[in-house]
Amino acid sequence: MKAIVNVDSNWAIGNGDSLLNYIPADMKFFREKTTGNVVVMGRKTFLTFPGPKALPNRVNIVVTSDRSWSAPDVIACHSLDELHEQLARYDTNTVYVIGGSSVYEQLLPECDTVYVTKVDSSKPADKFFPDLDKKEEWSVVCESEENEHNGTKFRFVTYKKGDFNE
């Protein structure tokens, strides 16, 4: 399983129900990685989508404790056990955790790769992703050149679980 996330310099991912940064190249990167695959998210993350509608050309799985919640073209799972039953139907290399913060926290231990768009800014936030730079089990295996959008600098960084310095 993989995760994909956009973080600021404090590993913040959101404030209220909004992303911190809108960067077209990051959205394109997200589409390229997740299209044709399985995306796992929390209900609040799903509700931030336009519509809100399921992301096209993906299997959309929403984790929610609200047993009455449903949406077209979405598989709702009401527990991690239920989620794992669903995920057993797919190759784990095709599964991407896409948020929010509690879903990332719960599923990060099961991920082996995390695609991080690191944005060189700091904004008010109330939702965070675990700081992989402070976790011994995670290593940077690929880092892009610095990019810029409307004065905001960012780079794409790939983390893998395990020791890749041998």
Concise structural overview:
The protein is α/β, with parallel strands linked by helices. Helices cover 19% and strands 36% of the residues.
Protein architecture, described:
With 166 residues, the chain is α/β, with parallel strands linked by helices. The chain has a single domain (2-161), classed as Dihydrofolate Reductase, subunit A (3-Layer(aba) Sandwich), CATH 3.40.430.10. 19% of the residues lie in helices and 36% in strands. The protein is built from 4 helices and 12 strands. The strands form 2 sheets. Strands 1, 4, 5, 6, 7, 8, 10, 11 and 12 form a 9-stranded mixed beta sheet that branches. Strands 3-2-9 form a 3-stranded antiparallel beta sheet, with no helix packed on it. The mean pLDDT is 95.
Please tag this protein with its features.
4 helices, globular, 166 residues, alpha/beta, three-stranded antiparallel β-sheet, 36% strand, Dihydrofolate Reductase, subunit A
Strand count, sense and closure of the main sheet? 9 strands, mixed
Helices, by number, come to 4
Supply the number of structural domains: 1
Number of strands: 12
The helix content is 10-25%
